[in-house]
Specification:
- By secondary structure, the chain is mainly alpha-helical.
- It has 24 helices and four strands.
- The protein has one domain: Up-down Bundle (Sodium/glucose cotransporter), CATH 1.20.1730.10.
- Helix 20 runs parallel beside helix 22.
- The radius of gyration is 24 Å and the shape is globular.
């Protein structure tokens, strides 16, 4: 075993052992502990757990890779995901906590006094969550395959077993305290390599200051021009301003509507704690999100200087190239047969293909950092994937067991029956997620875009209006959800090549200049217009519903009042 494999094994065994111990120690025996951790999680701990739950493998592994590849335009993910969390924390979370419901479909069903609305919300929550879980499990398999030499399918199975253990046994309580530990692992794994690379490339140990007080950005702009690109920092070099704005807001609204993040605010004792935990989470998230652009620039510089215009035989002798080329995520094609490989904007001349998802994981190796740091980075990627996967699985469980089984099918179910169903659903969801992690469909990227658009066009409008417009009724909400979902789903499928439809090319390229990634904004607007319009043309909600909505927005005594629930 190589040094990298040895240190990766050490970190993985230690961290996984910690997760299993926490899951066992925090096991629960009632539904309140299973779904909302008994609503007794301290604000700072919930902030760390929220940060870990929210920063998935997409944030840890993919975001800096996308920024490294796309330049300024890649910041759309940084702005959209971070802005979405701020939107959720400031505009929605405290009020949702005061509603004192277990889940988002629970809120939708009670606020809109409709079983139909509850079922639609539950189905949407399951779909959105399962798409994310499948992606996380695949990320686990990639990390295991690269750093431990395991078969990628076996890596997915190991991840399934670990997640299933602490999710089934401890529910939200076990997941919460496991996520606190996972946040510690993932943030150290992200920051330490960034500091080391910053010191090596800029002479400054603080990555953000290294960008400001060194010449690395002008150097990168020069390298990009040599490759045929415009300046790395030039905005809108790949997408129009309209599309960038729509993608950003679609990601924001989709993030603010993600049920696995929203449910975290139900785990604290009261509204005041929900506000504080939102602030702590934003602080914890900022450590990674303010570092990602710097790491992306460092990674881009290192990749260009290490690979571009170098002899292919020499490059293939590099240990990290051997390892990643074996995974199929790094490919070379000496098209002109001159023995050298070049990176180029021109696809016909470009001879290097790098999967965006490997850039962050490979960066410590490319920079020549120690095996200890490389192993820590691998453990961090696993922590990010597993923390989000566990939160998503609980959403699937609660949507089926609580919102459909208990609230609609068997309202007289005992605590034991509800726990049995909830744990059974998690077990089945893990198996499904593992299957799609082992056999990812060819349209995974399209489904991920679909999930964000779905969340933006469904959950965000009905939650927003449910809190701030007491006149919105069940007829309006159901109509708005259906219109938003159907439009968004249809447009994304038309704008993406879809094996589902048997098409190899997109049927249409955009909608009024808006790409598939940003179309959720249009669905969101349609949802709002239809919901408000239908609500105004039909009878208002019952008076007790209007009084409930009015009471939720009253700040006076909010902390004391909600603490009593």
């Amino acid at each position: 075993m190589s040094d990298v494999g040895l240190w990766t094994t050490v970190f993985v065994v230690l961290s996984f052992g910690l997760y299993i111990y926490i899951g066992f120690a925090a096991r629960v025996r009632d539904t309140k502990g299973f779904y909302v951790a008994g609503q007794g999680v301290p604000a700072i701990a919930n902030g760390a757990a929220t940060a870990a739950d929210w920063m998935s493998a997409a944030s840890f592994i993919s975001m800096a890779g996308l920024i490294a590849t796309m330049g300024f335009d890649g910041s759309v993910y940084l702005l959209g995901w971070t802005g979405g969390y701020v939107l959720l924390a400031l505009l929605l979370a405290p009020y949702l906590r005061k509603f004192n419901k277990y889940t988002v479909p629970d809120f939708v069903g009670d606020r809109y006094y409709s079983s139909t609305a509850r079922v639609v919300a539950a189905i949407a929550a399951v779909f959105v969550s399962m798409t994310y879980v499948a992606g996380q499990m695949r990320g686990v398999g990639v990390v295991f395959s690269r750093f431990l030499g395991l078969d990628i399918n076996l890596g997915v199975v190991v991840g399934m077993i670990i997640v299933a253990f602490f999710a089934v046994l401890g529910g939200m309580k076990g997941i919460t305290w496991t996520q606190v530990a996972q946040y510690s692992v993932l943030i150290l794994a992200f920051i330490i390599p960034a500091v080391a690379i910053s010191l090596k490339l800029t002479g400054n140990p603080i990555p953000q200051l290294g960008l400001i007080f060194s010449d690395i950005v002008p150097r990168l702009n020069g390298l990009e021009k040599e490759l045929g690109f415009t300046d790395y920092t030039q905005p809108f070099r790949q997408r129009s301003m309209l599309d960038i704005m729509c993608i950003t807001f679609s990601l924001m609204a989709g993030t603010a509507g993600l049920p696995h993040v929203i449910v975290r605010f139900y785990t604290v004792p009261n509204v005041r704690a929900a506000r504080y935990s939102a602030g702590y989470a934003l602080l914890f998230i900022s450590f990674l999100y303010l570092t990602a652009p710097a790491l992306a620039i460092f990674a881009r510089v290192n990749l260009i200087t290490t690979l571009n215009n170098k002899p292919l035989t020499e490059v293939r002798q590099l240990d990290w190239v051997k390892s990643w080329e074996a995974t199929g995520l790094l490919k070379f094609d000496d098209k002109n047969g001159d023995g050298n490989i070049v990176m180029s904007k021109d696809k016909d001349k470009n001879e290097i293909t790098i999967n965006n998802d490997i850039i962050v994981l490979a960066t410590p190796e490319v920079a020549g950092l120690s095996a200890v740091v490389i192993g820590l980075m691998a453990a961090g990627g696993l922590a990010a994937a597993l923390s989000t996967a566990s939160g998503l699985l609980l959403v699937v469980s609660s949507s089926v067991a609580h919102d459909i089984y208990f609230r609609l099918i068997n309202p007289k179910a005992s605590e034991a029956q509800q726990l049995l169903v909830g744990r059974g659903v998690i077990f089945l969801a893990v198996i499904v997620a593992g299957y799609f992690g082992i056999n990812p469909p060819g349209f995974v990227a399209e489904v991920v875009a679909f999930a964000f658009g779905l969340a933006a066009a469904s959950f965000f409008p009905i939650i927003l209006l449910g809190i701030f417009d007491k006149r919105t009724n069940s007829q309006g909400a159901i109509s708005g959800i259906l219109v938003g979902l159907i439009f968004t789903a249809t447009m994304i499928m038309l704008m993406r090549s879809q094996p589902i439809l048997g098409t190899e090319k997109a049927i249409i390229t955009d909608f009024m200049g808006i790409s598939a990634q940003g179309i959720g904004v249009v669905g969101l607007i349609l949802n709002l217009v239809v919901t408000i319009g239908v609500s105004r043309m039909t009878p208002p909600p019952p008076q007790h519903i209007q009084d409930m909505v009015e009471g939720v927005r009253v700040p006076r005594g909010a902390g004391q009042a909600s603490a009593a629930h």
